[in-house]
Amino acid sequence: MNNQLAESLEKRGFCLLENAITLEKLELIRSELDGIESEVISNGIDEKNQIIKLDKVRFMIHNLQFENCPEVHNVIINGVGNKVLSSIVEDSLVCTGATFANCKPGFPGIPMHTDYDPYDKNIYRPSNPIAIRILYYLDDIEPQKSPLRLLPYSHTSLNKNRTYNLEFDEDLEDEIQFTCKAGTAVMFNTKMFHGVKPNKTKMNRRVLALTYRPRFSKPLNHVEEYTDIKLSTLSNELRPYFENING
Ligand SMILES: O=C(O)CCC(=O)C(=O)O
After folding, report:
1. In whole angstroms, what is the distance from residue 51 CA to residue 93 CA?
2. What local confidence, expressed as pLDDT, does residue 50 receive?
3. Fewer CB under 10 Å: which end of the chain, C or N?
4. Which residue intervals of the chain are DSSP H helices?
5. What is the distance between the alpha carbons of residues 191 and 157, in angstroms, rounded to a whole number?
6. How many angstroms does the Cα of residue 116 sit away from the middle of ligand 1?
7. pLDDT tens per residue across span 199-244
């Protein structure tokens, strides 16, 4: 099974994990994240100085490791995506990003882009030679509800029109517009082009987005470490994913 997943991830640039989260766990995760969203919306940016994007049609919060959401933390530590990736890379993992995003009704979409930048220190577009994004969908993704766009094989492109820093909107013949049931996870190479179509429904479209890199794949550019005070708030299981992120 992992061989097929590894082949798909390595060659096509992505693989799918159906039923990655059970319905029961989905309820708990959604309720934790909805709670955080409502709290931030009513109280404004919290004291913990998290990176939050407040927008009428998209809510986004990074650094979920420092929020009170034990079920999300459990996904970071024990999620199927984590297990599959660890066995493919045969190394321990560092988590370079743990984000919740809610694309609400009217969300216009995100152009095709990569989550990789070898020349920057942006931890949300990590410079690590190998990093994998794992998107756990918390709602059904439908053709009218912001399907995910993926451009298979684009992580290997040598063409100047497909380099890491480009963005483009036009639909491509060889792209996949991906729909799925809530609880599905999609894993893809951060060098792969992906994007999101508009949400034309009246429903929320929520995703838990995690990025991991194998320990051996250090960032090319130094990134800011989390302080010891911040790290001390994490459980013993969670902490190894966020410490020594340059090493
Ligand atoms: O919401 C999604 O499906 C993907 C959004 C995105 O571009 C990302 O998380 O890198």
Report:
1. 23
2. 65
3. N
4. 2-7, 23-43, 70-78, 80-89, 228-231
5. 9
6. 13
7. 999 999 999 999 999 999 999 999 999 999 999 999 999 999 999 9
The 10 Å Cβ neighbour count of residue 95 is 20
133 Cβ below 6 A of ligand 1:
yes
Q: Whose CA is nearest to atom 3 of ligand 1?
A: 148
Q: Is any ligand 1 atom within 6 A of the Cβ of residue 138?
A: no
Q: What ranges do the domains of the chain cover?
A: 2-43+50-237
The count of residues in the chain is: 247
CATH superfamily of 2-43+50-237: q2cbj1_9rhob like domain (2.60.120.620)
Pairing verdict, β 148-150 and 176-178: antiparallel
